[in-house]
Write a structure and sequence with these properties.
The chain is α+β, with helices and mostly antiparallel strands. The protein has helices spanning 7-27, 76-92, and strands at 31-39, 42-50, 53-62, 100-109, 116-124. The radius of gyration is 15 Å and the shape is globular.
Length: 127
């Protein structure tokens, strides 16, 4: 019998991994600005501040690497949606619009003892 994960289970898993990523980023000194920002262009998992830089973070989880790691899963189309969503976020938050911005990807991999973390700062450019 093939078991499938329901949408509710996927959302709960996603929240758990985002909680883990958030704790890691806050431990590294970043401050949360917004979580799960949604607009017509898509969703940004975490919006953080690192000093004067606004950081848009995509959180990815992979239980196995046979199809590539979490970093590899952020392709050109996803990057374009993130850039458009970030532009919308900045338009809605004019006090942040003049700040430097970057796009990070935080990939979480299943580990036997503890999850692995691959945090790519400035993972891609907005251009």
């Amino acid at each position: 019998m093939l078991l499938t994960r329901t949408a509710t289970n996927r959302r709960a898993d996603g929240k758990r991994h985002e909680d883990f990523a958030l704790a890691h980023l806050e431990g590294a000194g970043l401050a949360l600005v917004a979580r799960n920002y949604n607009c017509r262009y898509g969703e940004i998992d975490l919006v953080m501040r690192e000093r004067d830089v606004v950081v848009f973070v995509e959180v990815r989880y992979r239980s196995a690497s046979r199809f590539g790691d979490g970093i590899d899963s952020v392709g050109a189309a996803k990057r374009a949606r993130l850039v458009r969503a970030a532009s919308a976020f900045l338009a809605e938050h004019p006090r942040l619009a003049g700040a430097a911005c970057r796009f990070d990807v935080l990939a979480i991999g299943a580990g036997e003892e503890a999850p692995s973390i691959d945090w790519r700062r400035n993972a891609f450019d907005a251009c």
